[in-house]
Amino acid sequence: MTIASVVEGEGELSALPTLLRRLTHEAGVWDANIPKPYRVGRGRLIKQGGLEASVDALADRVPADGAGGVLIVLDADDDCPAALGPSLLERATAVRPDRRTAVVLAQREFEAWFIAAAPTLGGCRGLPHGLEVPTDCEVPRDCKGWLTHHRVDGRPYRPVADQAALAEVFDIAMARANSPSFDKFCRDVHYLMTGKRGA
Asked: What is the pTM for the complete model shown?
């Protein structure tokens, strides 16, 4: 099974594969092929032709007769995921209908998924024990700033240095319960693995 992916941020180059391995292992799949994501700037991806070119290139890495597919993960920022996500998925599916494809927009940032499980981050990357999940954890902007503010080691949060480590430790079930966009991410990964919607 191969899950090829597209991301926009440098930190996701290592964080997304870490997270995908956790989910595939949780599903009992230990030999999934999860290559390094393909990084494409958000503006280029959203522009007509950019997403299509990325999906077309990555689809060739996914065997036609096996499980897996192409996963696109972006920060929603100020866009509405319920509006932008389906339009991007329609474009991605149109260019390669022969491969499973999923598009997930983190509301508002990838790091919001960590904050949705804040109590489980204690002791990792300078974060203290006893953190609480903020009310409406997907609403505020600047999740990176939230992580910097709560560190007790005096260092700023840096995606390239810290994102994969947090992806390794945050509680998946808690994040799913508190973050609808992360729950969608998990459901979409399940779809890529099995071809079935749900879970």
From this structure: 0.94
